[in-house]
Amino acid sequence: MQVTVEYLGQLGHLAGRGEETLEAAEGQGLAALLADAAERHGEEFRAIVLDDAGAPRPSLMVLVNEAPVDKARTPALKDGDRVTLLAAIAGG
Known about the structure:
alpha+beta
């Protein structure tokens, strides 16, 4: 199945694109999709998206089809879903 992933803010910069379509296994969970994206885009991207245990960071905002999701539950994705990722911005 195909899932479109949109990268906002610094994630787009690190991914080198604003969005891409990824192939995913039928019923693949959100956590696995994030791990696949992190594998594609390197350590700096991974450090922002996943914690040391490989779980989605609490500071990462994730929308699936424009609705916020509970990352801890790692919902299963469906063909044609659109996942939007936005990392929290720190500094001052």
